[in-house]
Amino acid sequence: MAIDGLIILDGTGRPIIQSGYTAYPPAYPLLHIDTLNNALAKVQREGDIDPVLYVSPGIGDSLAGSACCHIEVGGGLRMIASVSGDADPLIAFSFLQAFLEILYDYFGTISASTLRDNFDIVYQLLEETLDSSGHPLTTSPNALRDIVLPPSLITKLLASVAASAPTSSSGRQPGGLFGGSGTGAAFASPIPWRKAGVKHNHNEILFDVVEEMRGIVGRNGGTLVSNVWGKIESNAKLSGTPDLQLTFTNPNVLTDCAFHPCVRLQRWTRDKALSFVPPDGRFVLAEYQYTGQSAVVSNVPVPLALKTSIDIGEFGGTIHLSLSSRLSTKPMENIEVELYLGDDASGAQCVTSSAGNGVGSVGGAEGSWGFDSRKKVLKWEIPSIGTSGSWVLRGSWTSKSKAPRPAHALHIRFEIPAYNFSSLKVDQLRLSGEGYKMYKGVRGRSLGSIEWRW
Asked: How far apart are CA 246 and CA 244, in angstroms?
């Protein structure tokens, strides 16, 4: 068995859109929606819910139990993939992530109002990406744009057709709605991922090397585990059918690689060079893992240091955090430090300072803090941290419980522009098959998500 269908829920848990589910009883998708909503109502924090939930069969349902695989989307939305039979849940999660990227490619931002306003387009995307048997079909945004027109293009075409297209004596426009000869043109190219006859005024290709660190730091400040995953995001605007060869100065840092279908695997295995004919537009060229260069310690060094002093008393406690960077050349940006203060937390009062400058103001270089009364989370935000100095948060919190139980770990997120943990460097990019000169752009960016225990 494969994926039964897909459901998108709004922030209140109600369905916005779902697959047809023609081969299942009408109550089958409702069982998955109720299972997820009931599970969310039982947990204190949304992050505590299991990603795969068991769904018991309904009354009169001939099917055995099934699984509800779900992910959270920005804006409070959730996407559900229902799975029954002997199926790997990883397939469902992979499809959910692929469909989410398709929605971002089409609409830029995803919200309940966006999906409702473009209901017809979203439903067409569902039909084109998942067949009636539950097997993924076309998930490449580049190919889908030839089949399901984006909303902006639809608006332009409809306006153009209404204003200038001739009509016959019966009042109908010849050649279909857009004057074409049929839908076969969507697959006219001999290369599945690239359109035929692509033309651009300026030929360029841009590469973004994005790496993300996820790690856990122990109470003594030692790194228990840290892993780095990376991906090479590309945006190609090249005319014709360009054949590219991308080489690196240090390809050995790339391990456990996964490539776009356009990459010739034999060439990579033999020469460690990426040879490919790129799709037109945005795509992910490669994904990889970086494990570090040390043969003894595989953990990648965490680029920041945190000193914690948290005391728990009756009906509250005190907190003192001191954060600094371990990088010598690059500043860190958009730092967020979160501490869950327990389900009975009622409030907090803190001040911030940096590098001995005294108490900072909200939104200043020292950062700002806030207490989320719904999630019971104390959040400290710092816009930028330099290569020297320290940033301090100190204060106290109150609780309705005589014995508060805050989380014994802080969650830290950060960004480092123009930096990569692996120091991956592009050597050169060669073009063959076309006679023009192209512009090549490469930039790096790193993200981090660290659990820091105290």
From this structure: 7
23: CB partners within 8 A, 6+ apart: 132
- Distances 398 to 115, 201, 312, 344, 411 between C-alpha atoms, Å: 41, 62, 10, 9, 20
Q: How far apart are CA 203 and CA 240, in angstroms?
A: 10
Torsion of CA 248, 249, 250, 252, to 10 degrees: 60
3-state secondary structure of 294: coil
Is residue 174 within 8 Å of 168, Cβ to Cβ? yes
Instruction: Specify whether the CB–CB gap between 216 and 224 falls below 8 A.
Output: yes
Angle at which helix 89-107 crosses helix 119-129, to 10 degrees, equals 140
Measured CA to CA, the distance from residue 444 to residue 207 in angstroms comes to 8
* Residues ≥6 apart with Cβ < 8 Å to 234: 205, 206, 207, 208, 278, 282, 283, 284, 285
Q: Is 40 helix (H, G, I), strand (E, B) or coil?
A: helix
Number of H helices, E strands in the chain: 7, 21
Residue type, 107: F
Dist CA 105 CA 247 (whole Å): 28
* Whole-prediction pTM: 0.81
* Rounded alpha-carbon distances, angstroms, from residue 351 to 199, 318, 320, 346, 410: 56, 12, 10, 18, 18
Containing H/E element for 222?
A: none
For residues 168 and 174, give the distance between their C-alpha atoms in angstroms, rounded to a whole number: 7
CA distance 172 to 105: 33
Bridge partners of 392, per DSSP, are 322, 353
Token code pair at residue 141: 């945004």
pLDDT tens for the chain, 454 residues: list them.
Answer: 579 999 999 989 999 999 988 888 888 899 999 999 999 988 877 778 899 999 988 655 556 788 999 999 977 899 999 998 787 888 999 999 999 999 998 998 899 999 999 999 999 999 999 988 888 888 888 778 878 888 876 666 666 665 555 554 444 444 444 444 444 445 567 888 888 889 999 999 999 999 999 999 999 999 999 999 999 999 999 999 999 999 999 999 999 999 999 999 999 999 999 999 999 988 999 999 998 765 555 789 999 999 999 999 999 999 999 999 999 889 999 999 999 999 899 999 999 998 644 443 334 577 899 999 988 999 999 999 998 889 999 999 999 999 999 999 999 999 999 999 999 999 999 999 999 999 999 999 999 999 999 9
Q: In this structure, are residues 308 and 358 in contact, taking their beta carbons and an 8 Å threshold?
A: no
